[in-house]
Specification:
Number of strands: 4
Shape: globular
Largest sheet: 4 strands, parallel
Number of helices: 6
Structural class: alpha/beta
Helix content: 25-40%
CATH architecture: 3-Layer(aba) Sandwich
Order of helices and strands: HEHEHHHEEH
Strand order of the largest sheet: 1-2-3-4
Length: 185
């Protein structure tokens, strides 16, 4: 397992460059021919930038994004509008930012890896929650499509039972699939 690449506040493209270096080093050290990347929140954007602009399309087998604002978030727009300090990454996650326009131009799921995106319909960070859905060839699902009464918020997504079950079905050897044996509690 590779450690986190940053705190998500710096330039997302620079983080994608860092991911490229870590991926190259990981593949060289492991002898593997490909790798799976899991990105939470802004990390999903970093993974997609790596695939699109930094050689990741030839190296990634799967890209799983969790609660990622692929089309921006109204929260960043509000913060940028004067409610608080907006970091570089925050500015890049404003809907219709230059970075997002470039990232989403053409095919949002280019050839190479298989893409999976999961989110919560009650997320108050990636707003609206459907910003996490990818256009193109991706498995897109909300936590609530599997467990209708699940009220997981943004920060709880990485430990949610649906997301944990998705790890084996999305990152397994077969085609990515919606998990069916989740204990919704």
């Amino acid at each position: 397992m590779v450690p986190a690449l940053g705190d998500g506040t710096g330039d997302l493209d620079a983080q994608a460059e860092n991911l490229a270096e870590v991926a190259d080093r990981t593949l060289a050290e492991s002898g593997a021919s490909s790798l799976d990347v899991v990105g939470f929140s802004a990390g999903g954007l970093v993974a997609r930038l790596w695939v699109k602009d930094h050689g990741g399309a030839a190296l990634a087998r799967r890209v799983l994004t969790i609660g990622s604002p692929h089309h921006g978030t109204a929260v960043a727009e509000t913060v940028l509008g004067g409610v608080g300090d907006c970091s570089t990454a925050c500015e890049q996650m404003v809907p219709d930012s230059d970075l997002l326009r470039s990232l989403n131009a053409g095919d949002e799921t280019p050839d190479g890896p298989r893409f999976v995106s999961v989110w919560s319909v009650v997320d108050r960070v990636a707003v609206p929650p459907t910003t996490a859905a990818l256009d193109g060839a991706a498995l897109n699902l909300s936590v609530q499509s599997v467990c209708p009464d699940d009220v997981v918020a943004h920060g709880g997504l990485p430990a949610d039972p649906v997301v944990l079950a998705l790890l084996s079905t999305a990152l397994g050897t077969g085609p990515p699939a919606t998990p069916t044996d989740v204990d919704c509690g």
